[in-house]
Amino acid sequence: MRSTVLVVFVLAGLLAPLIAPYDPAVSDLAAGLLPPSADHWLGTDQLGRDQLSRLLYGAQISLTVTAAVLAVSLTFGVLVGTLAGYFGGWIDRVISRVIDMAVSLPGMLVALAVIGVRGPGVFNLVIAMSLWAWSPYARIARAKVAAMRDSPHLDALRLMGAGPARVIGRHLVPPALGPCLVYASTDVGAIVLGVATLSFLGLGIPPPYAEWGQMLIEGRPFLASAWWLAYPPGIAITAVVFASNLLGERLAGGDERPSILRWVLPARRNRTVAAKDDEALRVEGLSVGYPQRVVADVSYEVRRGEVLAVVGESGSGKTTSVLAPFGLVDPRAIVTGSITQGKRVGVVFQDNLAVFNPLRTIGSHVGEAVRNARRGRRTEELLTLVGLPASVARRYPHELSGGQRQRVQIAIAIAGEPELLIADEPTSALDVTVQAQLLDLLARLRDELNMAMIVVSHDLAVVARLADTVAVMYAGRIVEQGPLSTVINSPAHPYTRGLLDAVPRPGAVPGTRFRTMPGRSGAAPDDLAGCAFAPRCVIAVPECSANRPMLELIGAGHQSACPRKA
Ligand SMILES: Nc1ncnc2c1ncn2[C@@H]1O[C@H](COP(=O)(O)OP(=O)(O)OP(=O)(O)O)[C@@H](O)[C@H]1O
After folding, report:
1. How many angstroms separate the alpha carbon of residue 86 from the centre of ligand 1?
2. From 207, 274, 389, 423, which residue has the greatest number of CB atoms within 10 Å?
3. CATH class of 1-22+50-253
4. Does the Cβ of 501 fall within 6 Å of ligand 1?
5. Where is the ABC transmembrane type-1 domain (predicted)?
6. pTM of the prediction?
7. What's the complex ipTM?
């Protein structure tokens, strides 16, 4: 709907000369102030000019000015913001102060001052509006680039000899452009309204051009006698402003990516098909690269009513493996593989205040999820389902404990009655008792809602409470996979055994020492020709470093990638 209004606006603007029934500037005093009829669908004005034609040409003017303002402010803003974010230090401090000042100045005042000095006219209008509009783009681009500046990925590029121009142009501007384009979709409305307001004040596009703001002011004296003069441009402005705001909100919520991003950002080359029966997700041969691979040839599946635990050390690729099938990874990622999935998926992240908007109550967060889901559940019902009192709805995120916030995240995630719930380290930041309560809650919801669930954790003992099957990851690959009890009781891969020995196990003799694994984690899947775990493995033989062992079936549903059998 929101896109439709904007598409109509753009088409009207582009095609005005072809579809307008009359010349918008030609007067016919004998046909003045005619009401809408078959000849003049929107009537005529006091000079006998066809209102529909004027409205269509008005769209053309608004579109041209808006496109020009967006082009100037986006280019300038992204450039300035990227430079500040990339260079940091005093350059960043100076530019940031200028951006802060520009953001805090009332835009209309800036535009009025510029037009006051330079006089009205299309060119001056574009300059005035661009001076008003550039600063948010600079701020967004600066924040995005500053966050990426010190990433290991960029360090690696610099080490490989990439100069600042290449790093900025190829690796920083495209990701900064994404959120800026989302913001631009909201800005369309603001600019159309700004141009109309300035024209309304007699400072925008001068007559006889049929600009919407100009049409409004011309129609105002006739509001009582000839409503068709002021209403159509008024409705057109309102519709474009609303549609642009709604589209911006939707894009910011991640429902859709602006189509231009599909050219700017690398394509995802995965194949997604709908799941059958109780299969919630099946992933085959998933690889993710930036472009060097961080996840290689990963396959797993999970059915409704079943919990799959993905475990492994930090950096082993767990999160990437479970979120990449849904596009929830860095947009630069190149994702390949075959994915069979259900329609509805909910995600719960590690407890982090950043997941919530600090200025909105818990009730408004859950309420938004309820509205988006359109499945008839109510906020209080969801809060009760996750074991929270309804009064929590009036509280703000910082007023809740970590465990309570995780329950709220779960309530939001299940609002859409997902077929699959992904929980990424849902209890890592919490103490042991709260951890256990949350895992019990997840287990209960899995049964009550018959969901499939994937729980990501670095701690095998934690997920043992809830999982049916386990996939153990090391250096971007699954090294062992199978039913929970088999993997825990008779681990086949030395890495799984190492993970189990590093934590207390029920039934262990008091005084048993935990064993740590020698060496460091953090290898990537293609670093070594052989087994990535070999350098740390106590039972490795030279053969292990020469050839990479494949996952092989060693029991009922039990696979291991170690021929040595730990
Ligand atoms: N945007 C990115 N650019 C480059 N490399 C990335 C990017 N995102 C993730 N990686 C790399 O991918 C690898 C796997 O990361 P991932 O977050 O999936 O691991 P993980 O096992 O979930 O770790 P953790 O438990 O710390 O979250 C890591 O080595 C990480 O550095």
Report:
1. 22
2. 423
3. mainly alpha
4. no
5. 59-248
6. 0.57
7. 0.96
